[in-house]
Design a protein that fits this description.
Elements: E1 2-7, E2 10-17, H1 21-37, H2 44-55, E3 62-63, H3 68-72, H4 76-90
Antiparallel strand pairs: 1-2, 2-3
């Protein structure tokens, strides 16, 4: 599945795919980093995701189109937009409300 996100007028396509348990913790560390960059006050959703992964490995996602350098250099606005796109995919019932 691919996610398209518009950043500074440019459309960026982010590919997401299934993630095995051995990579799940690394993905969650990345997700926590994004949330921290977005200056989130409540990271409980990340903890909830950690518990969820214990039961549903196939539900995890990872960024496969962002290089480590691109990921490390995300600014707060980019991080917020990516979190919003992920939130809509993981929790469609949230209707786009901020989860982080």
């Amino acid at each position: 599945m691919k996610v398209k996100i518009k950043l500074d007028g440019q459309e960026r396509e982010i590919e997401i795919s299934g993630l095995k348990r051995k990579h799940a913790r690394d993905w969650l560390k990345k997700m926590r980093t994004i949330a921290e960059k977005a200056k989130a006050e409540d990271l409980s959703a990340v903890g909830d995701a950690e518990e969820f992964l214990d039961y549903q490995d196939k539900q995890a996602i990872e960024f496969s189109s962002l290089s480590k350098e691109e990921f490390d250099n995300l600014d707060i606005e980019e991080a917020n937009k990516i979190l919003s796109a992920i939130g809509k995919l993981l929790f469609p019932q949230s209707k786009g409300e901020s989860l982080f």
